Amino acid sequence: MSHSALLIIDVQHSFQHRPFWQEDDLPAFQQALTRLIAGCQRQGVALVDVFHVAPEGPFSLASGYVKRLPFLAHQADVTVHKQVHNALTDSGLDAWLRERQIDHLIISGMRTEQCCETTTRVASDLGYKVTFVTEATLTFPMRHPDGTLFTPEQLKRHTETVLVDRFATLASVDDVLAQLKQE
Q1: Among the residues of the chain, which ranges form H helices?
Q2: Counting Cβ atoms within 10 Å, is residue 14 exposed (0-12), middle (13-18) or buried (19+)?
Q3: Residues 6+ positions from 99 with CB-CB distance below 8 Å
Q4: DSSP 3-state assignment of 175?
Q5: Low-confidence residues of the chain, pLDDT below 70?
Q6: Architecture category of domain 4-181 in CATH
Q7: pLDDT tens across 75-95, in order?
Q8: Collapsed DSSP state (helix, strand, coil) of residue 80
C-alpha cells in the first residue's frame, strides 16, 4: 500500500468560463498530467479529485461546470469539494488521508500560484511531505496592479522559488514516477 496520494486540483470546466481562460499551455499540461496520473495508478497511489465550488457563477454546483475537463478519464479514489484555496481545511480530505496513513502528497492541477501553491503550503504546515510537480500544473497570465503582466512561466517560476526547500520538493513527472518505483 502506498503512503502517497496525487491531488488533482481544480481541473474543472469552470475555468473555461472565466475571462482569463486560454489554451496556449493546455496541450503540455494535459500530456504531463495524464502521464502523472497513469504512473501513479500503476504504483498504487491514491488519486484525489479536488473541485473548487462557490455559491454562484461558473464554480457553483448549479452551473454544471464543476466537473473534470474531458481529457481526464481516471477513476478517483475520492472526490472532494473545497470552498477555500487549499484542498485540506474544509473538504474532509485531511481526515480521509490520515485514516489511510497517507503522509506524502503529490500536487498537480490548476492554478499553479493559487490553489496548488496554497494547498502545498497548508499541507506542509499540517506535516505532510509534499512533492510539487510544476509541469503538471496550469495557470494563466496575471496583471499586477501597476500594469505589469506576468506570464504563466514567470508565475510558475515564482511559485517554485517560494516553495522549494520550505514547503515542498520540486519534481518532474519522470522524477516522481521514478521515486515511486523505489518505494
Answers
A1: 26-42, 93-99, 117-125, 152-163, 173-182
A2: buried
A3: none
A4: helix
A5: 1
A6: 3-Layer(aba) Sandwich (3.40)
A7: 999 999 999 999 999 999 999
A8: strand
